[in-house]
## 1
Amino acid sequence: MTPDKAVATQRRKAALPQGFRHLPGRLDRQAQEALVAELRIIIAEAPLFTPVMPRTGKPFSVRMSNCGSLGWVSDVRGYRYQPMHPVTGRPWPAMPSVLTDIWAELAPDAPPPEACLINFYGEDARMGLHQDRDEATFDAPVLSVSLGDTALFRIGGLERSDPTLSLKLSSGDVALLGGAARLAFHGIDRLYPGTSTLLKDGGRINLTLRRVTKPEKT
Ligand code: MD6
Ligand code: FE
């Protein structure tokens, strides 16, 4: 084996997991601006908060809020979904219809989404490699919408140690983790500040739509 080939073999190339989809530019600029305007109203009602890691209490570098009937929260007691904002105690605002429309288009067989997690990244924020596994059902995909500065997204397999592959998520992009990719490890390694003019103070918003509860059998 030539030295080059030995290196190539060692650096196992990750294949994108089946069921991962990346739809660059799914929302055009006008749709992105309209969605940001809706998110400003949502965040006025349900302010961004800084979650902390279970047990350690270490703060996340992203700030969060939610819309929809359920919201994902993290505090020293653990990760969970709850119907109320952890600080205000009020119900989460409704999900914008542009988001439920994209869900209906891309996940036509899934029951409607219940939670939309809103993650706000300042220029130094990141998101460690994780699985989205706090839902009671993994049948529906998780759908993500990116707004603002471009981010470097990394996705691997079902084990934390599996090889990973990186791609950039830009403003207006949609990503879908479904099928075998539903429980794939993934994270955000970094932002590229100044790559978008959408958010007037920079940064990035990522929205993730999830089905949380098992649908009623009909
Ligand atoms: C982010 N995304 O893009 C982090 N999760 O900021 C996620 O954690 C994510 O993009 C589930 C499905 C798609 C995602
Ligand atoms: Fe995730």
## 2
Amino acid sequence: MEKVKYSVVVAAYNEEEVLPAFFDRVTSIFDTLKEPYEIIAVNDGSRDRTEDILRERCLADKRIKAVNLSRNFGQQAALLCGLKESRGDAVIVMDADLQDPPEVALMMIEKWKDGYDVVHARRKSRPGESFFKRSTAKMFYRFAHRISNPKVPENTGDFKLYSRRATDVLIALPETNRYLKAQSAWVGFKQTFVDFDRPAREAGETKYNLNKLVKLATDGLISNSTYPLTLSFKFGIIACFLSIAAFLTFIILAICGIALPLAAWLIPTAVLLFGVSWSLKGISDVYTAHIYEEVKNRPVYVIKDKFNDQL
Ligand code: UDP
Ligand code: MG
């Protein structure tokens, strides 16, 4: 098999309107590199002519490879399949709708040649997307960034370049719940950014309905974080402290001769009961967080390289 230097990986779900333009743009830009490349297109259970278009393109151009999934598994699953099929020294993941301009991939390749293993394309602007989508995405990224460890880079999507070794680490991750944005940060090695203006979709409609967006967002929030699971314990402890402070205040007031009606004592009593039950629940949540980390079963470390290994 001929050695390929670059692999372009794309997931496509009902993208008949945009795929021909996608292949034309990507091939014309990657041809300028004058180095062997492949395009791996994963058809994520499309119900339109996506599969036919892929068949035609594969017949016409041997550098294009297509995989048809048995049903719609979601973009993240389709991308993992594409990464597994890829053979290039550098792998560039992009969307089919040309919102990830192939020209930007050339800048990413320059960074890879400078020795970076993961290059994130960062969106400077997102014209053509609704105010709702832009502002919710912004809030989401900020929050996800705060609670994650390692940090999920802000304003980035799946448009990234991975070196071969970064790709191999990603593929080998055992967890089934895939969220590449977080996992790419987790991989480590040298990472950097290229900034670009994100254009509007070239044709067709977004393939992310509200359900899929919510699933993606929750996966994103928890992929590198167990913070949400620690909240009940924190709330519980805070409630316990507040109620004890209220009790002490009431007692001091009573000593000073200011007697509060009996009903007033019910409030800190209720808060205390709430606090005790939430902190007890929180303890089991802390165990759940640990179980979650164990079940993800990620490697405990990734080796970059070794010195004097062969001596
Ligand atoms: N996609 C996919 N499976 C899905 C949903 C989306 O493979 O279930 C692909 C889609 O074809 C596109 C990419 O994921 O190549 C990003 O989707 P889209 O452009 O609709 O998302 P948006 O840019 O609106 O967030
Ligand atoms: Mg898009």
